[in-house]
Amino acid sequence: MLITEEVVFKEPKKANDFPAGEHEIRHSEKGKQLIYVLLADERIAKVKQGTGAAVEQATMMMGNDKSKYLSSLMAGCIEIDGRPLVMEELAELPMKSYMRLQLAFSELNF
After folding, report:
1. Residue 88 domain flag
2. What CATH number is associated with residue 61?
3. Which of 2, 10, 44, 49 is the most exposed place for a label (fewest CB within 10 A)?
4. Cα dihedral 97, 65, 34, 83 sign
């Protein structure tokens, strides 16, 4: 008789939850891919696959300012430390953190 042990995923909550030298943890939840990103200030971001509703919301949020489209689209798919990301918060992030988020977001959604 073969006994298999089921591995239960533990969502990362602190920097020490990431393997040494790594800044991403990939996981699939209910058939959707997620990427957890360790930010430069050691906060944890959760990047999700977007939906058509996220595209529609981003279109409304940007108004006539097309330069805000990507930021508003990203904000609809990212949480930081369990809180939804506000579009303006992206501009305040260190570039290293912003680029990590943009790469993870692009990989999941394009």
Report:
1. yes
2. 3.30.2220
3. 2
4. positive
The tokens describing 91, both together, are: 């501009």
Straight-line distance from the first to the last Cα atom of the chain, in angstroms, rounded to the nearest whole number: 44
* Of 77, 67, 1, residue with least CA distance to 34: 77
Is there a contact between 72 and 61 (Cβ–Cβ < 8 Å)? yes
For 34-93, how does the pLDDT look when each residue is reduced to its tens digit (9 = 90+)? 999 999 999 999 999 999 999 999 999 888 888 899 999 999 999 999 999 998 999 999
- List phi, psi (to 5°) of 15: -55, -35
The verdict on residue 85 lying in a domain is yes
Residue 41 lies in a domain: yes
Range of the structural domain that residue 42 is part of: 22-109
Query: Could you give the number of structural domains in the chain?
Result: 1
* Unique residue bearing structure tokens 């904000």: 75
Q: Compute the distance between CA of residue 80 and CA of residue 66 in angstroms, rounded to an integer.
A: 24
